[in-house]
């Protein structure tokens, strides 16, 4: 009986690590103006979440740059419209925009960047998206961000 209890306890501890929430994701972007993923799922159990953006292409950021911005879906269009005036030197982002939950810098081919943010900034009752603010990219380079149990 003791042996079975001990075995069950050890298996429970081992499986807890196997099922722990992953609080980070890597999103690849390409010269073909795409994110290789259309969804980011964030566990509600994560206090912080990290997004790693990699540009697997070869073109420079002033030609085919990408960033990754997370915001409420309703704010995506206004953010991308206002980003046009900012230019590549400002990563096509309006500085200190309160609508932006998190963002990476603008990167070119072969580069990568990461951003970590507090999951508490997201509300389960709001739809969120991730997108690129390089001019014209958000139409194809976007996806859903959802909180999951």
Automatic annotation (TrEMBL):
Keywords: Copper, Electron transport, Metal-binding, Periplasm, Signal, Transport. One of its GO terms (molecular function) is copper ion binding. SUPFAM superfamilies: Cupredoxins. Its main location: periplasm. It is found in: Periplasm. The keyword Transit peptide does not apply. It holds the Pfam family Copper-bind. This is Azurin. It comes from Ventosimonas gracilis.
């Amino acid at each position: 009986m003791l042996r079975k209890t001990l075995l069950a306890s050890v298996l429970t501890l081992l499986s807890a690590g196997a099922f722990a929430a992953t609080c980070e994701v890597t999103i690849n972007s390409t010269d073909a103006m795409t994110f290789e993923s259309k969804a980011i799922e964030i566990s509600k159990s994560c206090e912080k979440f990290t997004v790693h953006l990699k540009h697997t292409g070869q073109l420079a950021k002033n030609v085919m740059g990408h960033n990754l911005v997370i915001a409420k879906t309703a704010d995506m269009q206004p953010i991308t419209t206002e980003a046009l005036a900012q230019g590549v030197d400002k990563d096509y982002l309006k500085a200190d925009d309160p609508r932006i939950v998190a963002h990476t810098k603008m990167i070119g081919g072969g580069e990568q960047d990461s951003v970590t943010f507090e999951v508490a900034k997201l509300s389960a009752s709001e739809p969120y998206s991730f997108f690129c603010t390089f001019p014209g990219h958000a139409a194809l380079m976007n996806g859903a961000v959802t909180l999951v149990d």
